[in-house]
Amino acid sequence: MSRLGNQRPLENLNIAEFDLMPSPKEIHDRVPISDRASDTVYVAREMIKDILDRKDPRLFMVVGPCSIHDPVAAYDYAQRLKMLADEVSDTLYLIMRVYFEKPRTSVGWKGFINDPRMDDSFHIEEGMEKARAFLLQVNKLGVPAATEALDPIAPQYLGDLISWTAIGARTSESQTHREMASGLSTPVGFKNGTDGSIDVAINAVKSSARPHSFLGINVQGRSCVVHTRGNSYGHIVLRGGGDGANYDTASVALAEKALVEAKFAPNIVVDCSHANTSKDYTRQAVVMSDCVQQICDGNQSIIGLMLESNIEAGNQPIPEDLSKLKYGCSVTYPCNDWPTTETIIRKARDVLKHILPNRPR
After folding, report:
1. Superfamily of domain 21-358, CATH level 4
2. Which residue from 360, 361, 351 is spatially nearest to 292, judged by alpha carbons?
3. Which of 164, 160, 202, 191 is nearest to 31 (CA)?
4. How far apart are the C-alpha atoms of 71 and 100, rounded to whole Å?
5. Confidence band (pLDDT; 50, 70, 90) for 4?
6. Domain ranges of the chain
7. pTM of the model as a whole
8. pLDDT band at residue 5, thresholds of 50, 70 and 90?
9. What does the alpha-carbon distance between residue 164 and residue 147 come to, in Å, rounded to a whole number?
10. 27-47: pLDDT as tens digits
């Protein structure tokens, strides 16, 4: 028998199946961006850049559910947020947190794109189209959207409807995500590592600011070498870590010093959830109040805040019978309810409305 006949199977040994995915262009054609949505995205990106450049004295706030699982309830939330955003717009620029992908420490629901039916059927093609449709709906309302970039292919499907992007604590150290961020069209916030280290985030800002070349796909879905220009609007997000919170005055000062030493603008976003609350979502108001007080006391580096919020407080497990899901309640990390969200944002606005205009730029 020839050597060719003796060749053993070596590829895709643990692959059960390949399902074809529509190309980004096909999804775009099915859910085309509207003029209203395009205007929302363009204006929001420019506003965030102006805040980062200190041309706009306001703070931007990324506010919304830990993850999107019910587009109906999420749009209800977006409508409420729009009214609040208009009310506080002289001081705070609100952006809706619209997270479709969930990185898991071990196992769990991976998010709306991966499993839109929440039954482990993984109709990713369906999830991607529905995610785009929801983003379009929100932007048409005049509410800009923020998301976490997890899958490096997803921005080709959704990127034109995103105004601010986060790179999570588990992926800020990933070269793949730094390369992706260097080509994103939005400002990008890199979270500190899960151990609390800010070096990971600062190195990510440094890396993503430079051009990169890497393997990816284009809008037609073809594999290609992607060449990026670099993203000059990277910044860090303090979210706490294994050693505890890092939103306090001393931690913020250390982050400022590290950014300046790395020759970057001291732009800091504080995540008022996660390890900054010791995983107690009810403490988000405490974290936010502390950051507001730091600004009142002269802090110049905190330019943004993140808040996890939904219609109902807390979270819930995903039941086998999805009809038993509680409306407007998170199925991932627990969130503040809407009345609490309104209260703490209005309070921040009332305190900061006379402070921020006089902040040194």
Report:
1. Aldolase class I (3.20.20.70)
2. 351
3. 160
4. 11
5. low
6. 21-358
7. 0.96
8. low
9. 7
10. 999 999 999 999 999 999 999
